[in-house]
Amino acid sequence: MAWSTLYITGKKDFQEEVLNNLRHSDVSYLPGSSGDTDLLMLWVDEKMPLRDIKVAIGSKTVFKYRLLFFTDLDQHRTDKNKERLTPREEAMIREMSNWEARYRHSA
Q1: CB neighbours of 79 closer than 8 A, spacing ≥ 6?
Q2: Cα angle vertex 32, ends 31, 34, to 5°?
Q3: What's residue 95's pLDDT?
Q4: Which residues of the chain have pLDDT under 50?
Q5: Residue 16: φ, ψ to 5°
Q6: pLDDT at position 71, please?
Q7: Given this model, what pLDDT does residue 79 score?
Q8: Alpha-carbon span 100 to 67, nearest angstrom
């Protein structure tokens, strides 16, 4: 069996529940260490569909912790950087919120 790397990230303290759910499933996996506290690294059978892994983890856990799955660590880092707003974007959002608050009840 050949292994492929899977990275999982989500809300705080998701790792224990994910590993517990996998332990009680038929999925063959090896836990790993990514050195990142908000990232769980697993080695899984490369022929296993991601959907089967998600089913083994359970939909309640996936949605409870807003789990995201990556096969490439660079993809995780890129997505993490995309979530942050630039100072200009934050200023624009504040400006729109202030404008909306001023004119909300004018009609």
Answers
A1: 68, 70
A2: 140
A3: 86
A4: none
A5: -60, -45
A6: 86
A7: 55
A8: 33
Sorted by sequence, the CB contacts under 8 Å of residue 33 that are 6+ apart come out as 41
Does this model's pTM top 0.85? no
List, edge to edge, every strand of the sheet that includes 29-32: 29-32, 39-45, 3-9, 68-70
No. of helices (H) and no. of strands (E), the chain = 5, 4
pLDDT confidence of residue 72: 81
- Looking at residue 100, its pLDDT comes to 78
Q: Distance between CA 68 and CA 86 in Å, rounded?
A: 23
Question: For the CA atoms of the chain, what is the radius of gyration?
Answer: 19
Query: Residue written as tokens 């200009």?
Result: 88
For the chain, the distance separating the N- and C-terminal CA atoms, rounded to the nearest angstrom, is: 67
CB half-sphere exposure, 60, CA atoms < 13 A: 2
